[in-house]
User: What shape does this take?
Amino acid sequence: MSSSTPFTSGGGGDAPIQLIHSNRGTNIYRHGNVGYKVLMCPEEDCQLPAAATAAAPVSEQQILKLVREQTISRYLPHGCNKRRVVDVKGFKGNPSLYFEWVEGDSLKHWMDERQLQGDVKGGGGTQAQDVMEQRLKVAMSITKTLDEFHYGGVACNFLSLDHIILQWTGNDIDRRYCSASLINLSRAVVFAELSEKDAKEAIRKDLNELGLILGALFSGESDVSSDVERRLSDDVLSDFDEANNDDECDHQPSKRGKQRTLGDGLPTYLSSMISAMVGDDTAEVSELYDNASDVLKDLQVAAKNAGLCLIPVPVAKERDRASLVMSNTFYGRRNEVALLTRSLQTVAVLGKPNVAVISGRGGAGKTALVNQIKKPLEDINGRFIQVKFDLNTQPDTVLFSALDSFIEEISDDEEGLELQRIKKSLGSEISVVANSMPNIAKLIDKSSSRFAATAEVSTIHQHEQMKCALCKFIGSIATRKNPIVLFLDDLHWADKTSLDVIQRITVSPDISHCFFLSCYRDNDFALAKPVESMLDGIQSQDVPIIKVPLGRLEIDYTHEFISETLCLPPNLKSMKQLANAVHHKTGGLILYIKNFMYELCEE
Assistant: This one.
């Protein structure tokens, strides 16, 4: 039975005191910012009129529980979102717990008000995702508070929808911050008073109830499992819903029957989390969460990747490569990315060309690393020219082909200023590269006698003339306004002639505002030796080289990649075990990791 009848405090003048809730021997009152949890005999009138002064018969054990709540409240850190107990003393002659009132809605009331169960489980789309994101904020706030309890050395030992009070701050609905307070300390236990085994069991019990709470939250159902409901109905000291005056919080034991599997219909990411908290009769301890901190981290991952984690993943009848979507996120290599970015900024600001070489095994992610500087390059109006050597292309044509493609891209300039600058820079040597770069040939006035004279010379393909012409060409397109990144990919496939040309342009004094970036495999001595000889030649001319060796991907990033690929929480023990196995099997090489995941999917 619940009521909200005000009456006057015998010792507090005319200040009204509100009866908020009454439930089998416990009344909850509010007087401004102070709450009173009053122990009464079940037969006593719950209104507790002002004329009543005789103490109701209450057992010593019940009084000790009030004192225990006060002890727990003071034991927890001050900043913890808990019930802040002020004192234990009499209220109208009855034993009472005085505490600071927590404003807000109980989780049960908040869920009942929204009535969005159908929106969460049915359809999908933007509205359903928005609902899930809002509930995710609530889930993180509850888990954060439970983690604070555990960090403070206390297990709540009794979670329910009615005893979690939500407080929202901020006006923007999308940016509102949610905090959650756990207000029932009647069964809380201190780890220091328990054995190590019992302390772990207390944490496990909290995580089990947290899983039930989050399962109810995400599915939109305010009725949690029958086990929790039975505990609520058996708790003679339960004090429900401080925040809502009209809530009927008397819970009857749930009828046993066929129970729906918690997490059904939810996104795979969330249902996996809930299963790892709640477990079942067949669940191994090694498959369950150990602590609330890992749960909170996985919820935070879901918040950052809502589009991936909060959308139900369709179950394919037959798994194949097409059904496994690899993440495009770049994992790890933060120091290497920072080094390349700083080098690019040096080129752009000071104009002095830089040379960087990335070495590593095939599949280590060398090209993917280089791609990380494309955005910073774009931000400074830079240009990216990729020269990719391979076995199927004649090496001495690759560089010219890439540069010629660049000419084609800039030929749309209506005023043609850049093309005119290139033509002026090359001068009479424009004909030297004209045969190898068709778009350069378009800049030549073929009717002039000058072209006819130089064209005959250009057919000789004198090596030094070609090097000189390329230096002038690159010098003309790399400017302060538009710095250049010349990416020489798979340099180990380049022939000696190409390497000679690359060495010449790298050390050329005619070139500024250019970042020479190369990649090659260093695990094959025969392929790597010519490249390393060229690098020695560059350094012998006092040109510093930034060397970036790439080894295996760190295991934490392998873990993150597999988690996002499978849409599963990264802190699940089974995820960590899988990541360890894949990392060991593939040597931590990202290309091999992806191929291995495809093979697992197909099998």
